[in-house]
Amino acid sequence: MTFTVWCPDLERVRVQVDGVEHDMAPAEHGGWWSADVDASHGTDYAFVLGDDETPLPDPRSAWQPQGVHAASRVYDHNAFAWTDQSWAGRELARSVVYELHIGTFTPGGTFDAAVERLDHLVDLGIDLVEVLPVNSFDGPHGWGYDGVLWGAVHEPYGGPDGFKRFVDACHARGLGVVLDVVYNHLGPSGAYLDRFGPYFAGQNDWGPGLNLDGPGSDEVRRYVLDNARTWFEHFHVDGLRLDAVHALADKRALPILEELSAETSALSETLGRPLTLIAESDLNDPRTVTPRSEHGLGMDAQWSDDLHHAIHVRLTGETDGYYADFAAPGALAKTLRGAFFHDGSWSSFRERSHGRPVDVASVPGSAFLAYVQNHDQIGNRATGDRISASVSPGLIACGAAIVLLGPYTPMLFMGEEWAASTPWQFFASFPDPELADAVRNGRRKEFGRHGWGESEVPDPMDEATFRRSKLDWSELKHPDHVNILELHKSLIALRREFPELSDPSLADFRVEVADDDSWIVMHRGRFQVRVDFAEGAIDVTSAD
């Protein structure tokens, strides 16, 4: 087979195949190197760069069975026997999304273990399963946002075959799969890309960022675009959730997101099924979800943190930090009407005006994901406590009704449907003691600045923190949890039965609100959805 690698600035590159080194030949132009070596599925290989004798894994590796510092392994995508040939895909509009983390969704923490719980999601009424990142990162467990080999599936979860079995099983049950991918930074351990070429450009809040617009950036951008294509084409996923796109430093006339949108649309035509791109963006810029034909970036949807914040403040009364602005009278109603609360208004947290209005006449509500909880909004609390730890079942119902019967694309976080009592805390497992200490101490200091006692912050490196964050499925035997589950099932069933309750039109969406914000009424065609925060009650009535 032919091994290839991009190393534009090196004078010598070798490939080590099953421990034997072979010189690679440079292409005449472009910085690519290649070598034909006897190898097949399951063969271990690594690259030796210049005068450095340390073998490094392939930046485009599809399989890292021994971790991110070890050799890559040849993986033949054609060897997997798919059974989803009749799968026609799943549109985002009118769907219900369910976010889960493979390592903590089940006691087993693997793709195969997760498959055993898919029928629960079908019974709940879920359409799309959004999986937190599964790319390779250092250590056995973590959130997945510190990945360094973006094309290799984390081996402790089950590796590439395991993920394919999971996607295949989802499709067999009518569930689409959205994969969370991180293109804005690399993790702190195993990020060797800069040794191969000019992949990096500066730092952001989380680590080294990619060179998307400097010298050599054409191949770096291709690295991103090819990775996205691989998930769609070889792993059959139905959508990608793009983490924190506001952190992508890209000043090109054709932004990487617009380029990704164009290539994804073309691939969708080729594959004959819908492919979805969902961005996480802090910019409150509707151009993110504006079609390319109208000079937008062409994302199909984005998360709406403003809507989360407005709901959270109304349910919990918390007004610290970035929640402060959302305590303003009518904040929830305003955000429900237009997706963004900060639409050019003053943001006290940022100490400046922020955002731009959404044109509700042209942008559908389905272009924004609505949620009461997600991995960030739980896991980035000091103790990882869920909203069910602090509000009544009645208020849980209020939040669920707004999300599931409103005009936006609803998303639930794993366990939310039964008010799981288990926290979801920040955890990692870096083997390097110095890096582990840095993460541990940094986490404690960060929350100490926000008023938490450092002793209250769980140690992210403690195995117990990870174990505490696993769902306890035995809770479904208890009446209180069953009641919350039945509530969510009923609301999703209503949404499915009556098209008005999943209508994404914002132009026709009306909201009434009490002067004291004690209740709101969402008008959904012939239906009125009344949410009474004071009483902790919901009421859905029809004009018929």
From TrEMBL:
One of its GO terms (molecular function) is 4-alpha-D-(1->4)-alpha-D-glucanotrehalose trehalohydrolase activity. Residues 99-443 form the Glycosyl hydrolase family 13 catalytic domain. Pfam families: Alpha-amylase. It is found in: Cytoplasm. It catalyses: hydrolysis of (1->4)-alpha-D-glucosidic linkage in 4-alpha-D-[(1->4)-alpha-D-glucanosyl]n trehalose to yield trehalose and (1->4)-alpha-D-glucan. Transmembrane segments: none annotated. One of its GO terms (cellular component) is cytoplasm. Pathway: Glycan biosynthesis; trehalose biosynthesis. The record marks D376 as: Transition state stabilizer. Keywords: Carbohydrate metabolism, Cytoplasm, Glycosidase, Hydrolase. Its EC number is 3.2.1.141. The active site is at D243 (nucleophile), E280 (proton donor). GO terms for biological process: trehalose biosynthetic process. Substrate binds at residues 241-246, 305-309, 375-380. Its main location: cytoplasm. InterPro entries: GH, GH13_cat_dom, Ig-like_fold, Ig_E-set, Trehalose_TreZ, Trehalose_TreZ_E-set_sf. SUPFAM superfamilies: (Trans)glycosidases (SSF51445), E set domains (SSF81296). Belongs to the glycosyl hydrolase 13 family. NCBIfam families: trehalose_TreZ. This is Malto-oligosyltrehalose trehalohydrolase. It comes from Aeromicrobium endophyticum.
